[in-house]
Inverse folding.
């Protein structure tokens, strides 16, 4: 059984979606995340274990490799695709409450900014590490963030920006959130953002890569 | 010498008397003349006014004519969202929304906003014959991403032929755009391909190299110069970029300049960059800008280097900051002043580290950005905080948040280069990675043991008795042993009677007595030259 979970983790790590997928070449013709997850459920493996000991293990490895510049965006996207293929099979268990997520993470690219590659990557990594992600999309205003946080109690929130001109909107949004919800935890990220900037605008966390955010979130609920 | 001539010299890797300087003025030109980004990028007149103003204010050797990576995309059917302070953003991707590649045509010179760039080039060429004009084109990979959306990343693996076909088309567009701009009077074609920072070297070589190489070859055939601009974390691809044979590569602050210098020069290619756009030029003051520029100038050197910001200047970059850089570039005296100021800061207190960590307690220093704002820093501080009490007062720990100047000095004194770092008794122990508890405990314990060993060894001494004939020193030997016994000391006595060995101690004829006090000064580290000098002075 643990052998099977290890195989699932490997499929996520290397982005092997299903048997038919040509990528990665070294796993050609082998079962992918799709088949193996289905098999695990049929064999009676507990859904929670499939998530935490299979899928999340693989995703974590990808996150670390991405941080260490061993893989890049294309490979991470393949892993995320493999992950979401597997998640389809786990969905009923989420709905029934049999599988629990660590918490909720709300994310959006800030007002005035339409760039979504970074935000999407972060969403996928956070989701792949056992969190429920609420993606508000791009060009998101302060009120939308606040409304979403009121809807999802105790959720963490992440603000993304690619431009130097839109990153200043992070300050406005962070202030608006903290005013309404003083205990809210706000994480910021994106190419021009730095830890210095994060401190200056009163946000709670900054990371240069998705894995850093995952570690921050996990540390908050540990 | 200045302008194009100077840049040509730098591109040819010849030694220059002054480093050429190219401020990447894009929509910032509109800021200088008081128009928004959309008005600016849609008007030949505004571009001419903005660039002329920049030439007047910043005294550059070269400037880009138009810095906008959406010109080609817009013509090819991508919808744009305009913003007042930024170049527009692509919001739809035709090839992801049903358009087929066969329907796309290589833009004509009269299409979209190409005339803005072409006409502005012609007028600026006339007005400023000496200034090098950079014609910017969207790099094929970035253009392909505009057309396909992020699907391109997965299609690299799932449908490589499709990606190749799109890349081939984008290359045709790039060649044509280069031709329009060169014919209008540009001196240098800059292929701006920032999205390549998102892929690994192998993918780069497969999907980018053949296409970019073709564009650079075309420019060479036209007997003009080329540059490869990239921004973001593209360090992994620098070598592959050089292999595409541009005349120059230009990078931003995400890549260390010395790294690029080494690779580019080895490949016989000039390089440029990499002043910090946001923290320094946009948010910093004139001093910060001068200091950062000086760092780049000294690192880049007078062979093959072009000083430039990392990328397109943010629209509202304070002109005073860019002027400060320009003044510095043109004034060797100002450069000396900035250098001297820098030196004063960087040599502070470094000498006083010689006895650091020699006291009885073990000191654990955590160098951080600020544990309150930097998550990895916070975890590192917490790791130490948890472990320290286990040693019951033997271990002291401190955090040095480098937002304060004295912490920066401390950091450089310990030769720490990465944040966060844990030092144990002044020696770098853990860099970036947060150590598991057991490893941290083990490292501290190891240091405690080493100190204890050191203390025991410090007490050890030796007496050397030098005599050519054993019989010659029997009396002395007896006295020494008696003295040792009476004083209760742990001292080893060694008799040396070999003539050559005696000569090494400067003794020609025995008997002679030499006392030796061992003092272990360091273990497991390489003390710096200054520290060594201090030790030798004590002898």
């Amino acid at each position: 059984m643990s052998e099977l979970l290890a195989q699932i983790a490997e499929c996520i790590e290397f982005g092997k979606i299903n048997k038919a997928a040509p990528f990665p070449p070294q796993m050609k013709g082998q079962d992918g995340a799709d088949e193996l997850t289905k098999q695990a459920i049929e064999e009676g493996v507990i859904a929670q274990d499939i998530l935490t000991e299979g899928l999340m293990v693989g995703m974590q490895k990808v996150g670390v490799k991405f941080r260490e510049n061993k893989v890049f965006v294309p490979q991470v996207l393949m892993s995320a695709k493999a992950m979401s293929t597997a998640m389809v099979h786990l969905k009923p268990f989420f709905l029934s409450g049999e599988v629990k997520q660590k918490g909720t993470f709300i994310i959006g690219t800030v007002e005035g900014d339409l760039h979504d590659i970074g935000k999407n990557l972060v969403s996928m990594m956070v989701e792949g590490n056992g969190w429920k992600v609420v993606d508000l999309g791009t060009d998101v205003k302060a009120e939308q963030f606040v409304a979403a946080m009121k809807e999802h109690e105790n959720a963490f929130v992440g603000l993304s920006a690619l431009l130097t001109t839109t990153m200043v909107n992070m300050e406005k949004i962070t202030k608006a959130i903290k005013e309404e919800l003083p205990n809210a935890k706000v994480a910021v990220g994106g190419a021009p953002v730095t830890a210095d900037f994060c401190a200056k605008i009163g946000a709670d966390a900054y990371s240069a890569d998705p894995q850093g955010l995952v570690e921050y979130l996990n540390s908050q609920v540990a | 010498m200045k302008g194009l001539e100077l840049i040509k010299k730098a591109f040819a890797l010849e030694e220059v008397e002054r480093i050429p300087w190219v401020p990447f003025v894009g929509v910032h030109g509109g800021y200088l003349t008081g128009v928004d980004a959309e008005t600016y990028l849609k008007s030949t007149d505004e571009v001419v006014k903005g660039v002329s103003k920049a030439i007047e204010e910043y005294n550059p050797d070269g400037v880009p004519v138009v810095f906008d990576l959406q010109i080609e995309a817009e013509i090819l059917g991508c919808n744009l969202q305009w913003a007042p302070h930024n170049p527009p953003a692509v919001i739809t991707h035709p090839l992801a929304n049903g358009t087929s590649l066969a329907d796309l045509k290589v833009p004509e010179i009269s299409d979209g906003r190409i005339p803005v760039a072409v006409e502005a080039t012609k007028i600026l060429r006339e007005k400023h014959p000496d200034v090098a004009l950079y014609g910017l084109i969207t790099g094929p990979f970035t253009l392909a991403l505009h057309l396909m959306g992020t699907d391109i990343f997965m299609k690299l693996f799932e449908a490589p032929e499709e990606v190749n076909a799109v890349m081939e088309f984008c290359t045709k567009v790039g060649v044509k755009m280069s031709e329009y701009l060169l014919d209008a009077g540009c001196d240098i074609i800059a292929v701006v391909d920032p999205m390549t920072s998102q892929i690994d070297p192998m993918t780069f070589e497969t999907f980018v190299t053949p296409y970019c190489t073709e564009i650079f070859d075309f420019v060479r055939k036209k007997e003009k110069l080329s540059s490869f601009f990239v921004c973001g974390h593209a360090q992994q691809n620098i070598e592959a970029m050089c292999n595409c044979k541009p005349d120059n590569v230009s990078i931003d602050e995400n890549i260390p300049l010395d790294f690029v210098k080494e690779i580019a020069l080895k490949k016989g290619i000039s390089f440029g960059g990499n002043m910090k756009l946001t923290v320094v030029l946009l948010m910093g003051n004139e001093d910060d800008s001068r200091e950062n520029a000086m760092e780049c100038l000294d690192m880049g050197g007078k062979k093959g280097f072009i000083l430039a910001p990392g990328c397109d200047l943010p629209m509202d970059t304070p002109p005073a900051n860019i002027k400060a850089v320009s003044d510095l570039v043109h004034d060797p005296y100002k450069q000396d002043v900035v250098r001297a100021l820098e030196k004063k800061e960087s040599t502070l207190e470094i000498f006083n580290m010689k006895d650091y960590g020699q006291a009885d307690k073990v000191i654990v220093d955590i160098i951080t950005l600020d544990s309150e704002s930097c998550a990895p820093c916070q975890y590192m501080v917490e790791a130490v905080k948890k472990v320290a009490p286990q040693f019951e007062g033997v271990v002291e720990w401190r955090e040095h948040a480098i937002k304060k100047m004295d912490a920066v000095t401390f950091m450089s004194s310990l030769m720490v280069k990465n944040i966060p770092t844990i030092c144990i008794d002044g020696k770098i122990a853990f860099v970036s990675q947060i150590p598991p508890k057991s490893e941290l405990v083990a490292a501290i314990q190891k240091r405690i043991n080493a100190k204890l060993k050191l203390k025991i060894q410090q007490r050890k001494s030796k007496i050397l008795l030098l005599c050519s004939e054993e019989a010659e020193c029997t009396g002395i030997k007896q006295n020494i042993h008696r003295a040792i016994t009476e004083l209760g000391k742990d001292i080893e006595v060694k008799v040396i009677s070999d003539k050559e060995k005696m000569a090494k101690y400067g003794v020609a004829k025995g008997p002679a007595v030499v006392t030796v006090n061992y003092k272990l000064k360091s273990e497991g580290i390489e003390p710096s030259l200054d520290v060594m000098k201090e030790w030798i002075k004590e002898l």
Q: What stands out?
A: The longest strand of chain B covers residues 132-138. Residues 3-345 of chain B form a domain with the TIM Barrel fold (CATH 3.20.20.210). Chain B touches chain A at residues 81, 83, 85-86, 89, 91, 150, 153-154, 156-158, 198-200, 203, 232-233, 235-236, 277-279, 282, 314-316, 369-370, 372-377, 379, 403 (CB under 8 Å). The CA atoms of residues 188 and 225 of chain B lie 5 Å apart.
